[in-house]
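ESCALATION

Customer reports they have been waiting on this structure for their group meeting. Please prioritize. Original submission:
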Amino acid sequence: MAKARALDKRRKSIKNIRKITRTMELVASAQFRRAMDRAIAADSYTKRLVHLVADLAKAGATVTHPLLEERKDVKNVVLLVLTANRGMCGGYNSGILRLAQNRYRELSEQYPSVKLHVSGKRGISYMKYRKIEMEKSYTHFDYKPTFDEVDVLARDFLEDFQTGEIDRLEVVYCRFISASRQTPSVETLLPFSEIKADMDGGSGDLESQGTVSYEFLPSPQSILEEVVPGAFKSKLFKCFLDAAVCEQIARRVAMKSATENADSMINLLTTTYNRARQTQITNEILEVISGANALK
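Update from on-call: job pushed to the front of the queue and completed.
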């Protein structure tokens, strides 16, 4: 009887765990849908800003801005790593942190000063455990980052870049491509090469092709002074949104896999419990029959 009771107790424990993993799967699915909508909207907005600068260049405007200038002598580099505050999301954090550690090592070999900024408790714990020095750490960017929160960080980066305190900014994060494809990536945000590449290589958007005519008021340069920093802030915000989407996808997949494994274990334990219970009942019947035969 003791074995059957132990199996039943273990089965009930696994059922309770399954309830938790199933709930977390449903919550991650709901948060993923909202985060994906925000990421897609931000991506469209950022691309349109980039295409606008490319259109200005095609229209004959002189496109010059400090954020677009490549530094010849790069000395100070900032590596921003975006991880999650919570676990239970499969290999999401480990994939980003492996890439970040390798990139940090490469930058340290190329440039004299590399500063590490880490967002997320998992990344902070990882760096502390490996005794990698961090200049700044952030824990207030959760699964639903706001533009105001990212704007404060973006303003600091813009100010440091324009004053020469940093010459290059790279971001390590999980890039959202589709609901079935996400990949850890490294992107250079300062200097803002995405606009420059679109200007040099041309835009693939149909709306940006052909002859474009603009009337500037008050001047093209004043427009660029607003558009280029805004495009950088939007791009940084998009990185945070991508990270949030990928985290929820990874958590949903991990919790779904945990729920399915719990179902398999429950079925196996149920079968084992039934066999153990049947064996105990059979033994009890045999004991009763044996006792009855002994009294005859």
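Sent to customer with the following note: The chain has a mean pLDDT of 82.
Escalation resolved.
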